[in-house]
Amino acid sequence: QFVPVNNSWGPNNRSVAFRIPTGSKQARRIEHRVAGAESNPYLVLSVILAGIHYGLKNSLNPLSQSRTDNACVSRDPEMPNNIEQALQLLESSKILKDYLTDEYIKIFVDLKRKEQESFNSEISDLEY
């Protein structure tokens, strides 16, 4: 219920990728709500900064903020909901290839697919 499910932003909306909580100016911040604790923080920050740089360099305006707090009725672009969808989006990203290089993305995607294949090949004790 409080996880980002769409690629949007909004104030006090916990279903968006970027949340801007309302409050005093001293407490104002942007929350990036997509990356989890298992993520490489250096890679996450690199990709966020690449996106910011690309947007500023190309004078892009942000999309309109999410119009609903209910993720179930949202019309905002959805986030990938499995590792394969996320890897396919990364592979097809022309923007990130300019920042991370095509070679890095190829190696990273190959590694993550092999990790997923290894995970899928075993049944853990929790699944019995």
TrEMBL record:
Record-linked SUPFAM superfamilies:
Glutamine synthetase/guanido kinase
Similarity comment: Belongs to the glutamine synthetase family.
Query: Cross-referenced PROSITE patterns, in alphabetical order?
Result: GS_CATALYTIC
MF (Gene Ontology): glutamine synthetase activity
Can you say what this protein is called? Answer: GS catalytic domain-containing protein
Cellular component, GO annotation:
cytoplasm; membrane
Q: Where is the GS catalytic domain?
A: 1-128
